[in-house]
Amino acid sequence: MDSASINHEIILQALLNRDGSCRDFNFAERLSRQACVNIIALIKRDWELTEGHNSDGKLISLESVESYLDHDTGAVHLIWTSHTKCPPHLQIYISFEASEYFCELTFFPGDLYVPYFDLSEFLNFLNRLVTVSGSKEYYLRYEDASWRHGEETLKASVIFSHSSFKLSP
Fold first, then answer.
1. Is residue 166 part of a domain?
2. Is the separation of the CB atoms in 25 and 139 below 8 Å?
3. Is residue 167 part of a domain?
4. Is 22 within a domain?
5. If we measure between CA atoms, which residue out of 89, 92, 90 comes closest to residue 104?
6. Which of 21, 15, 160, 23 shows the shortest CA–CA distance to 104?
7. How many domains does the chain have?
8. pLDDT value at residue 9
9. For residue 49, what pLDDT is reported?
10. Which distant-in-sequence residues (6+ apart) come within 8 Å of 156 by Cβ?
11. Do the domain assignments include residue 169?
């Protein structure tokens, strides 16, 4: 999207667009282990872990996620539910190798209940995630398998990034 046109109305339309794809929020490609732990800690304040899997597909508990992140290589997929926050369903995917971590949050437009959805509250949540992660980069985007990290120009799948829309408290 053209950075000059990014405003709350454009963001809201992109979030609520029921085109069949999910929305992803990505951080810098190489986060620290602690950044991922901080992201999980922030999310577990308001969401409950309903299911977690490691890269072998085995169930893992919230208590074992941090120790699993100590492995040399792997991934975790965590599914969260909240009865008070929007979106009520949130997924986190973390993959890691050689102390470099990649983290992506996923949610679906259908979970953003239009009469109750507060864009400012949602953007504040994203800002808190960026703050606890220490990431200098972020991308809110449509699911797009052809997207490559850092790609934002001429890519309609990117709703906004750190260079086109500043998250602020």
1. no
2. yes
3. no
4. yes
5. 92
6. 23
7. 1
8. 92
9. 97
10. 1, 142
11. no
